[in-house]
Protein backbone atom coordinates (compact mmCIF):
# COMPACT_ATOMS: atom_id res chain seq x y z
CA UNK A 1 0.00 0.00 0.00
CA UNK A 2 1.22 3.50 -0.88
CA UNK A 3 2.16 5.88 1.92
CA UNK A 4 -0.15 8.84 2.19
CA UNK A 5 0.04 12.35 3.53
CA UNK A 6 0.26 12.19 7.33
CA UNK A 7 -2.20 15.09 7.77
CA UNK A 8 -5.14 12.92 6.73
CA UNK A 9 -6.66 11.92 10.04
CA UNK A 10 -8.89 8.87 10.38
CA UNK A 11 -12.46 8.69 11.57
CA UNK A 12 -11.61 6.67 14.67
CA UNK A 13 -13.25 8.36 17.61
CA UNK A 14 -15.43 10.53 15.37
CA UNK A 15 -18.98 10.89 16.60
CA UNK A 16 -21.18 9.67 13.76
CA UNK A 17 -24.50 9.83 15.61
CA UNK A 18 -27.00 12.57 14.88
CA UNK A 19 -27.21 15.53 17.23
CA UNK A 20 -30.70 16.25 18.51
CA UNK A 21 -30.96 19.40 16.39
CA UNK A 22 -31.03 17.46 13.11
CA UNK A 23 -34.22 15.59 12.32
CA UNK A 24 -33.53 11.83 11.99
CA UNK A 25 -35.31 11.88 8.60
CA UNK A 26 -32.69 14.34 7.38
CA UNK A 27 -29.87 12.06 8.49
CA UNK A 28 -31.59 9.14 6.76
CA UNK A 29 -31.90 11.20 3.57
CA UNK A 30 -28.18 12.03 3.67
CA UNK A 31 -27.37 8.33 4.07
CA UNK A 32 -29.60 7.38 1.12
CA UNK A 33 -28.28 10.06 -1.22
CA UNK A 34 -26.08 9.21 -4.20
CA UNK A 35 -23.05 11.50 -4.34
CA UNK A 36 -21.98 11.68 -7.99
CA UNK A 37 -18.44 12.75 -8.78
CA UNK A 38 -17.76 14.17 -12.24
CA UNK A 39 -14.25 12.78 -12.36
CA UNK A 40 -12.91 11.06 -15.47
CA UNK A 41 -14.42 8.50 -15.47
CA UNK A 42 -17.40 9.58 -13.34
CA UNK A 43 -18.33 7.59 -10.25
CA UNK A 44 -20.76 7.68 -7.32
CA UNK A 45 -20.20 7.61 -3.59
CA UNK A 46 -22.52 6.08 -1.01
CA UNK A 47 -22.24 6.49 2.75
CA UNK A 48 -20.31 3.69 4.46
CA UNK A 49 -19.65 1.79 1.20
CA UNK A 50 -16.16 1.18 -0.14
CA UNK A 51 -15.46 2.98 -3.42
CA UNK A 52 -12.71 1.56 -5.64
CA UNK A 53 -12.94 4.58 -8.00
CA UNK A 54 -12.44 6.93 -5.05
CA UNK A 55 -9.43 4.96 -3.91
CA UNK A 56 -7.93 5.14 -7.42
CA UNK A 57 -8.63 8.88 -7.65
CA UNK A 58 -7.00 9.53 -4.25
CA UNK A 59 -4.00 7.39 -5.22
CA UNK A 60 -3.59 9.26 -8.54
CA UNK A 61 -3.35 12.49 -6.54
CA UNK A 62 -1.15 10.94 -3.86
CA UNK A 63 -3.58 11.86 -1.08
CA UNK A 64 -5.08 9.70 1.61
CA UNK A 65 -8.32 11.56 2.18
CA UNK A 66 -11.04 13.57 0.50
CA UNK A 67 -14.29 15.33 1.31
CA UNK A 68 -17.52 15.82 -0.61
CA UNK A 69 -18.80 19.29 0.28
CA UNK A 70 -21.39 21.79 -0.88
CA UNK A 71 -22.35 25.36 -0.17
CA UNK A 72 -25.97 24.79 -1.25
CA UNK A 73 -29.00 25.03 1.01
CA UNK A 74 -27.52 25.96 4.40
CA UNK A 75 -28.84 23.75 7.21
CA UNK A 76 -30.92 21.96 4.54
CA UNK A 77 -33.13 25.00 4.02
CA UNK A 78 -33.86 25.43 0.31
CA UNK A 79 -32.45 28.63 -1.22
CA UNK A 80 -33.26 30.01 -4.64
CA UNK A 81 -30.99 28.83 -7.49
CA UNK A 82 -29.17 32.17 -7.80
CA UNK A 83 -28.27 32.24 -4.10
CA UNK A 84 -27.05 28.63 -4.22
CA UNK A 85 -24.99 29.31 -7.36
CA UNK A 86 -23.35 32.34 -5.72
CA UNK A 87 -22.50 30.33 -2.60
CA UNK A 88 -21.05 27.49 -4.68
CA UNK A 89 -19.01 29.93 -6.80
CA UNK A 90 -17.49 31.45 -3.64
CA UNK A 91 -16.61 27.94 -2.43
CA UNK A 92 -14.88 27.15 -5.75
CA UNK A 93 -12.90 30.40 -5.47
CA UNK A 94 -11.89 29.54 -1.90
CA UNK A 95 -10.74 26.05 -2.91
CA UNK A 96 -8.80 27.53 -5.84
CA UNK A 97 -7.06 30.10 -3.62
CA UNK A 98 -6.11 27.29 -1.25
CA UNK A 99 -4.68 25.38 -4.25
CA UNK A 100 -6.74 22.32 -3.39
CA UNK A 101 -7.50 19.76 -6.09
CA UNK A 102 -11.25 19.39 -6.55
CA UNK A 103 -13.79 18.18 -9.07
CA UNK A 104 -17.49 18.99 -9.35
CA UNK A 105 -20.22 16.63 -8.27
CA UNK A 106 -23.84 16.55 -7.22
CA UNK A 107 -25.77 14.96 -4.39
CA UNK A 108 -29.02 13.37 -5.58
CA UNK A 109 -31.56 11.51 -3.49
CA UNK A 110 -32.86 8.43 -5.34
CA UNK A 111 -36.57 8.93 -4.58
CA UNK A 112 -37.23 12.37 -3.11
CA UNK A 113 -38.28 15.18 -5.48
CA UNK A 114 -35.90 17.89 -4.24
CA UNK A 115 -33.27 19.14 -6.68
CA UNK A 116 -29.71 17.87 -6.50
CA UNK A 117 -27.09 19.94 -4.72
CA UNK A 118 -24.01 20.94 -6.69
CA UNK A 119 -20.94 19.89 -4.74
CA UNK A 120 -17.19 19.34 -4.94
CA UNK A 121 -15.04 16.36 -4.13
CA UNK A 122 -11.98 17.97 -2.54
CA UNK A 123 -8.81 15.88 -2.50
CA UNK A 124 -6.41 15.91 0.44
CA UNK A 125 -8.78 17.69 2.84
CA UNK A 126 -8.19 16.31 6.34
CA UNK A 127 -11.12 15.54 8.61
CA UNK A 128 -10.85 18.54 10.93
CA UNK A 129 -10.50 20.99 8.04
CA UNK A 130 -13.37 19.35 6.14
CA UNK A 131 -15.67 19.48 9.17
CA UNK A 132 -14.73 23.11 9.84
CA UNK A 133 -15.43 23.95 6.20
CA UNK A 134 -18.85 22.29 6.43
CA UNK A 135 -19.60 24.28 9.58
CA UNK A 136 -18.48 27.53 7.98
CA UNK A 137 -20.71 26.76 4.98
CA UNK A 138 -23.62 26.16 7.39
CA UNK A 139 -23.95 22.51 6.41
CA UNK A 140 -25.37 19.85 8.70
CA UNK A 141 -22.98 17.26 7.33
CA UNK A 142 -20.30 16.43 4.78
CA UNK A 143 -18.88 13.18 3.44
CA UNK A 144 -15.28 12.39 4.35
CA UNK A 145 -13.11 9.47 3.40
CA UNK A 146 -9.69 8.40 4.56
CA UNK A 147 -7.39 6.06 2.67
CA UNK A 148 -9.88 3.24 3.23
CA UNK A 149 -12.04 4.92 0.51
CA UNK A 150 -15.20 4.50 2.57
CA UNK A 151 -17.16 7.77 2.61
CA UNK A 152 -18.44 8.56 6.10
CA UNK A 153 -21.24 10.93 6.98
CA UNK A 154 -19.62 13.53 9.22
CA UNK A 155 -21.93 15.84 11.14
CA UNK A 156 -20.53 19.33 11.31
CA UNK A 157 -21.98 20.52 14.60
CA UNK A 158 -22.51 24.09 13.41
CA UNK A 159 -24.42 26.51 15.53
CA UNK A 160 -27.85 26.97 14.00
CA UNK A 161 -29.98 30.08 14.00
CA UNK A 162 -31.71 30.12 17.36
CA UNK A 163 -35.25 30.04 16.04
CA UNK A 164 -36.27 26.89 17.88
CA UNK A 165 -37.08 25.07 14.65
CA UNK A 166 -35.89 21.67 13.61
CA UNK A 167 -34.71 20.91 10.13
CA UNK A 168 -36.81 18.23 8.49
CA UNK A 169 -36.73 16.52 5.14
CA UNK A 170 -33.44 17.30 3.41
Description:
The chain is of the alpha+beta class and 170 residues long. The protein has one domain. The protein contains four helices and seven strands, in the order H-E-E-H-E-H-E-E-H-E-E. It has helices at residues 24-32, 52-60, 81-97, 127-136, and strands spanning 34-37, 43-45, 66-69, 102-108, 117-123, 141-145, 152-155. A seven-stranded antiparallel sheet has the order 2-1-4-5-3-6-7, with helices on both faces. Strand 4 and strand 5 (117-123) form a beta hairpin. The protein is globular. It starts with 23 loop residues before the first helix and ends in a 15-residue tail after the last strand.
Helices and strands, with pairings:
Elements: H1 24-32, E1 34-37, E2 43-45, H2 52-60, E3 66-69, H3 81-97, E4 102-108, E5 117-123, H4 127-136, E6 141-145, E7 152-155
Antiparallel strand pairs: 1-2, 1-4, 3-5, 3-6, 4-5, 6-7
Quick tags:
single chain, 170 residues, alpha+beta, seven-stranded antiparallel β-sheet, 4 helices, 20% strand, disordered N terminus
Task: Give a quick account of the main beta sheet: strands, pairing sense, barrel closure.
Answer: 7 strands, antiparallel
Helical coverage, percent range: 25-40%
Strand/helix succession: HEEHEHEEHEE
Report the average pLDDT across residues: 84
Q: How many β-strands, per DSSP?
A: 7
Radius of gyration using CA atoms only: 15 Å
How far apart the termini lie comes to 38 Å
**Largest sheet: spatial strand order:** 2-1-4-5-3-6-7
SS-based class: alpha+beta
List segments where confidence is low: pLDDT < 50 over at least 5 consecutive residues.
1-7, 9-18, 159-170
Classify the beta-strand content into a percent band.
15-25%
Shape: globular
What is the count of distinct domains?
A: 1
The total count of helices amounts to: 4
